[in-house]
Amino acid sequence: MAELRLYSDAYDSIRQASNMELGHEERARCYLARLRLDAFFSDTVVVTDSQLLDGVFFLDAAQRRLSTNLPLSRMEVRCRASSLSESLLRTFVRPGDENLAGFWFSAIPAEARAHVQTELARYKASQVNYWRDLISALKAIGLDGSVADGLEEAWARWIEQAETGALKIRQWNQEFSWHSTVSSRMQKSLFEFERSIRTVAGREATALALKKQTYRSTTTGELTKLKEPYPPDSEEAQDIASVVAWYNQIYHATAALQHDCNSVDSTAVASSNPFSAPLRTFDRALNLVEQGKRPDKPDQATRILSIELPRSFTAGLASMPVDELERCIESQRENLAAWRAHRDLWRLKLAIEGLAEATKTGGFDDKSWTLDTMFSPARLLCAAGVSAAVSLFILDPFAALKFGLSTYGGANALKAAGMLASPRHRVERQIMEFAKSRSSLGGT
Q1: Cys staple from 49: which of 79, 321, 371, 422, with CB 3.0 to 4.6 Å?
Q2: Residue 343, Ramachandran bin (φ over 0: left; ψ between -120 and 50: alpha; else beta)
Q3: Could you read off the pLDDT of 126-183 as tens digits, one per residue?
Q4: Contact 33/306 with Cβ under 8 angstroms?
Q5: Cα 12–243–393 angle (5° rounding)?
Q6: CA-based nearest residue to 203, from 227, 235, 172, 239
Q7: Strand order in the sheet with 263-265
Q8: Where are the beta strands (DSSP E) in 167-246?
Q9: DSSP letter for each residue of 54-99
Q10: CB–CB of 84/169 below 8 Å?
Q11: Is the dihedral of CA 36, 37, 42, 45 positive or negative?
Q12: In the prediction, which pLDDT does 164 show?
């Protein structure tokens, strides 16, 4: 069976910044649990150089010397150059450009981001010849010294991990045609998507996304501004959120292809509408629940995990020794292979049972929680769906289920579907049938 390589937007630097702050121990623990869960279900978790070097979670782990707690043996960092240090330098110093690139930092304080971006674009590239020169540049343009020193400390630690071989580095496909791939996928899915748009504002947002499709930060920023005048629950705001969700799915699907991933976890956007047949099938139940039976908004931990789990389990998963996690993954290799190959729900349950047992080494021993209460069939699938690499949803950028974070989380969407379906197993059968139909990258 081919290696399952996961690209997840949970590790997008913007998402990391929205989910936690530097030094927030509890949220860092949730992110570590999420990463370990993804590593459990997939062979390789792929992150990019910018997600690592501008990601709050990864920088926090390096600054607090916790990087060895990450499942490094099951991670791969895709870089724009052959080394991590050179990739960091090339992020800011572009061939032929007189000034540095105006990089939008996600990992620095929000109030400093616009200023740093503007001033970097005015800083002479000739003054930056080594990655540590970037720290001098950041201090020279006014970034707080302690913030710059924190970046330097974290960057140095990750570069050291890469140079010693503890962290796998692989240069990404330089021949990949990013612009044409994004454009092709947007045009291919446009007809079905436009049928979900109900307002003039939504059509304007769609036109904007098509026009500026290859510049994600600019595109999403302008779409966000376009939504500001409208009330959050208005049709206009929902349509614009749907455009953002559609664009993000295509962006992340394209990134997965560029980085040789055969599975992608693309998170939905709050308030967006289902714009494809699978989304309509599985989100209708959630929408009905929201019309008067709205579940509580998830806390930050659930946003990070994209599934509700007992805090003691999350803590146990994050706290267990990393070598114990490796032993657990190896011991469950046959069960996970059976799930991937045959969608064998029983073998998936056995694999997660083994993981739950292993988390006891990290302190998980909550007698009130049993495997059945933690992982009902729907939640079992949701746990596996946190990592699309288990083949529950093989990459389908145009008709992907909102299986990560929906308005209230994928777990709640499934619970809502189970609550409204009669009998409940009918929804579970639908999910399994849909899973069986996902068999190749970019399937329809």
Answers
A1: 79
A2: left
A3: 999 999 999 999 999 999 999 999 999 999 999 999 999 999 999 988 788 888 888 8
A4: no
A5: 60
A6: 239
A7: 168-171, 75-79, 44-48, 5-8, 263-265
A8: 168-171
A9: S-HHHHHHHHTT-GGGS-GGGEEEEESSSSHHHHHHHHH--TT-SB
A10: yes
A11: negative
A12: 95
75-79 and 168-171: which strand pairing? parallel
Helix axes 84-92, 131-140, angle to 10 degrees: 40
Buried b (16+ CB within 10 A) or exposed e, 352-391: bebbbebbebbebeeeebeeeebbbbbbbbbbbbbbbbbb
For residue 8, list its beta bridge partners: 265
* Rounded distance between C-alpha atoms, residue 243 and residue 207, angstroms: 10
Q: Could you give the CA distance from residue 136 to residue 295 in angstroms, rounded to a whole number?
A: 49
CA distances from 281 to 165, 275, 406, 436 (A): 46, 10, 14, 16
Residues belonging to the chain: 444
Alpha-carbon distance of 324 to 370, in angstroms, equals 21
HSE-CB of 361 using CA atoms within 13 angstroms: 13
Q: pTM value?
A: 0.78
